[in-house]
Amino acid sequence: MLPRFPTVDIHDAETGLTFDAGDLVVINYAAANRDARVHTDPDRFDVTRPTRKNHQSFGVGAHYCLGAGLARLEARIALESLFGRYPRLTLATAAEDLRPLASFISNGHQQIPVHIDGAPARPTGPDHLTVQVTPPAAPDRTPPRGHTAETPAA
């Protein structure tokens, strides 16, 4: 839940709701992307829906998530790797039997059991990546000329 306090009186003609300046207004995160006026069958997960680029998952405007691009990239890499390696991966239970997380902030399931039929596909690249990180050199802590350890900083 996201609490907000309007600084001016607001009347929404479409819904008929009125909020006075200073009223507590609580926004439910889980309601994002669930507007049936915008998304057909909004409670169904469908990555091919025509309105897929109109979602609010990463916020809007000045509050748009700085990590959105990274999150999309990580998801794409993870899903392509998973389904590339296990092309016959299937759900091991009926979708309606999946138990949702008890959370009002994120949507998901307590667990998602899957069947991995057959041997994994032959990987097209390395099984893992090794990243070599070279730490930066230690900073030069030599005092400036004319200064000693006892000289107060300016």
UniProtKB/TrEMBL annotation:
Native source species: Streptomyces sp. R39
Single GO MF descriptor: iron ion binding
Entry similarity comment: Belongs to the cytochrome P450 family.
A Pfam family that the UniProt record links to this protein: p450
Superkingdom per UniProt: Bacteria
Region listing for Disordered, in residue ranges: 116-154
Name this polypeptide is given: Cytochrome P450
InterPro entries: Cyt_P450, Cyt_P450_B, Cyt_P450_CS, Cyt_P450_sf
UniProtKB keywords: Heme, Iron, Metal-binding, Monooxygenase, Oxidoreductase
